[in-house]
Structure formats: structure tokens, C-alpha cells
Amino acid sequence: MNIQLEADFISSYVFQPVYSMEGRLLAVEMLSRFNSLDGDLAMPAEIGINLLAPEQRIELFNEQLKLAERHADWFTGNSVQLTINIEETIVELILSDPALCQWIRQYPFIAFEMSESFSNLSAGKNNPYVQRLSEMFTLWLDDFGSGKATLTALYDGLFDYVKIDKRFYWQLFTHQGYDVVIDSLLKNINLLCKGVIVGGIEKKEYFNKLRYAGVLGKVRTSS
After folding, report:
1. Residue 20: inside a domain, yes or no?
2. Which of 9, 108, 142, 154 pairs as cysteine with 113 (C-beta 3.0–4.6 A)?
3. Does any domain span residue 203?
4. Is the pTM of this model over 0.90?
5. What's the gap between Cα 176 and its chain centre?
6. Helix axes 98-105, 88-95, angle to 10 degrees
7. CATH at 107
8. Which of 15-29, 61-75, 165-179 has the lowest mean pLDDT?
9. Spatial CA neighbour of 182 closest among 145, 139, 222
10. Residue 60 phi/psi, 5° resolution?
């Protein structure tokens, strides 16, 4: 997809794996990347998405769905989820189009990731967009611990999986009471969802510390 801003950018995708603590591939997150046509400039995904017009965001989402459809047999055959990040424009699109909802639901391996910064997420089940979406699709809460939302949506059971913000985890890692804090945090989150993904596991010591948490069967890791 070509994107015209002050310079011309082209979007591409990278796929970030999510593994169980035992090393099994459980999910793949589809992430957008924005690079200038000459290859000299790279734009952070968050900035790139925010600069897109609504129709461009929809075009990007449709591209992602086509990729999911193309590789559906692989995801289904390997029991691996594909997560796609969504924001308000895309949520409104999905919920306003019954045919699109039905089309997506024929691919149950597709899950949607929603950031803590999603509009009015702290309203939990009183946010009709999040409530309706959670009734139809597998939802992941992204950036947990970034401080942008309360725990209401989690307590209301709207999310199937929770992805802990890597900066939050790194901060916890250096905390004097890490073992007690992380064990308590993971156990409590797991009471509210099907599993926890801990992001930012980029060093062996991060992984080794997690191995001693008391909820190994429900902890996943990503880089």
C-alpha cells in the first residue's frame, strides 16, 4: 500500500511470534511497518497509523484480512492464532458491516488486539463497541500496564488474553520485590482471562525469571 504524506511511504508487514514457556508457537502478531520508497526513512508504526486518513486505515485493514485469508490453511492446520491490531475506525467498520463480521468469523484463528489507549476502554462493558466486539471475536488487550486505562474492562471479562507492556515488565524486573510482584500480578490477571503474554523478553535473564512464576501454563512470551 502506497501512502502519500510529506514523503511517499509504503506499508509492509512483519510477524512477531508468541511462544509458550515450553517453546511452542501459539500466535503471530501482524505488525505494520512504514518505510519511504527510497528506503532511507522508517516511521514507527504508531505514528504511521495515526497519520493515516480513515479510508487509508480501512484499506490497510483489508490488506491484512487478505493476508489472513491467503494463509488460513497454515494457521488452522498449526492451531496458531493471528492477531491484528485495531483502533476506533476499524472497530466501527466491523460493527457496522454484518457481512464483514460474518466473513471474519469464518476464520476463528483471527484475533484482534486493542490497546489500553482505545477510546473509553475504562468504561468496560459500558463501552458498547468493546462489549459487542468481545461477543463475536477473540480479543487481546495490548500494552497492559502502560497506565492508560483502568482494570474495569478486564474485570468485566471482555478480553481473552492480556499482553503486558514490555516497558512495564522491564520496570518490574528491576524492582526489589520482583518475584513477589510478578507472581501476584500474573496470578491475578489469569483469574480474569485465558492467558497472559509478557512482551519484551529479549534477554535470557528475563525468560529465566519468568520460569519461576507460579502460572507457567498460562504465560506466553514475545520479543
Report:
1. yes
2. 142
3. yes
4. no
5. 29
6. 100
7. 3.20.20.450
8. 165-179
9. 145
10. -65, -45
For the beta carbon of residue 16, count every other beta carbon within 10 angstroms. Answer: 13
More confident residue, 138 or 149: 138
- Whole-number CA gyration radius for the chain: 18
- Domain of residue 165: give its range: 16-32+51-222
Is 153 strand, coil or helix? helix
Give the containing element (helix H, strand E) for 3. Answer: strand 2-4
- Between CA 126 and CA 140 the distance in angstroms is 18
The total of other beta-carbon atoms located within 10 Å of residue 23's CB is 7
| Beta partners for residue 195, in sequence order | 161
Q: Which three cell numbers stand for residue 38?
A: 527510497
Contact 144, 165 (CB under 8 A): yes
Q: Report the distance separating Cα 12 and Cα 18, nearest Å.
A: 20
Number of domains forming the structure of the chain: 1
pLDDT class of 223 with cuts at 50, 70, 90: low
Contact 63, 46 (CB under 8 A): no
